């Protein structure tokens, strides 16, 4: 329905569409990628030349599969368009941030006397939407964004730029299984609020003053049914116009700042 943590030098990016992947986002060559996988390095995805019979590349493919990294067999011309360097038939896409562990972030929030607020994104694949959501979440003081390893927007320099640098400040947790990740949030003491048109209660009547994980779904088909079944509460944004859906970035902003508003009002009592 709805729709490393490293410093980035924004001056090197312009506002025109990129024709090539920025070299800071990729790693190429058999040995560097093999060693990185052995060391447990996380990659967004791997491109391997389609007609390769190289044994080391075959081993890289197996290692990536074991690590849950998406691997695509592509024509060599596609690799050449990404980089003119000697890629040796394999290119890895490197995330622009360091991923966090949810349990560490939640524990730190509780220890600091905060009421954790987590945003969970189910299959939000558009990079611009993701960047805008990250910016909103960071501005609202959310503690964490949780995304699935597969079926989520690629977090490269485009996402960092779209977030206006917010992804350098708000922790992001990437999990193999989103359902399991949500169960672990519940085990940590957070209620799970799924934002969906299936909700029986308007958002403004859902208590989010307590530790909360807000789940937002994809533009196409919203939140997965198996995740909705995990929800402690279902909330809907009341619609007064003829259009009955919102862009996920806009919807996420409404929900996060409503949680923020409730907590600020409670603190003033």
Textual characterization of the structure:
This protein is of the alpha/beta class. It folds into two domains: 20-93, 2-Layer Sandwich (60s Ribosomal Protein L30, Chain: A), CATH 3.30.1330.30; 102-268, Alpha/beta knot (3-Layer(aba) Sandwich). It is built from nine helices and eleven strands. Strands 7-6-5-10-8-11-9 form a seven-stranded parallel β-sheet, sandwiched between helices. Mean pLDDT is 89; it is low at 1-21.
As a whole number of angstroms, the C-alpha radius of gyration is: 20 Å
Give the N-terminus to C-terminus distance in angstroms.
35 Å
The CATH superfamily of the largest domain bears the name SPOUT methyltransferase, trefoil knot domain
Specify the helix fraction band: 25-40%
Compute the number of helices: 9
User: Major sheet: order of its strands?
Assistant: 7-6-5-10-8-11-9
| Overall SS class | alpha/beta
Main sheet properties: 7 strands, parallel
């Amino acid at each position: 329905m709805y729709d490393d943590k490293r410093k980035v030098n924004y001056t090197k990016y312009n506002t025109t569409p990129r024709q090539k992947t920025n070299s800071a986002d990729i790693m190429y060559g058999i040995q560097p990628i093999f060693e990185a996988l052995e060391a447990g390095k996380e990659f967004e995805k791997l491109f391997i030349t389609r007609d390769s019979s190289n044994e080391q590349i075959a081993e890289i493919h197996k290692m990536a599969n074991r690590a849950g990294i998406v691997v695509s067999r592509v024509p060599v011309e596609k690799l050449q368009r990404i980089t003119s360097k000697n890629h040796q038939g394999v290119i890895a896409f490197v995330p622009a941030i360091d991923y966090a562990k949810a349990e560490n972030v939640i524990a730190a929030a509780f220890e600091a006397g905060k009421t954790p607020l987590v945003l969970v994104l189910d299959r939000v694949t558009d990079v611009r939407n993701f960047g805008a959501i990250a910016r909103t979440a960071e501005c609202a003081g959310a503690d964490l964004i949780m995304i699935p390893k597969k079926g989520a927007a690629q977090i490269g320099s485009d996402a960092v730029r779209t977030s206006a640098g917010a992804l350098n400040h708000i922790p992001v947790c990437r999990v193999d299984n989103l359902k399991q990740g949500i169960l672990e949030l519940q085990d940590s003491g957070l209620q799970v609020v799924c934002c969906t048109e299936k909700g029986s209660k308007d958002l403004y009547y859902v208590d989010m003053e307590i530790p909360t994980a807000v789940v937002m779904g994809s533009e196409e088909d919203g939140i997965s049914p198996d995740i909705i079944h995990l929800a402690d509460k279902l909330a809907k944004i009341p619609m007064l116009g003829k259009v009955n859906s919102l862009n996920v970035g806009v919807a996420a902003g409404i929900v996060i700042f409503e949680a923020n508003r409730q907590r600020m009002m409670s603190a003033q009592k």
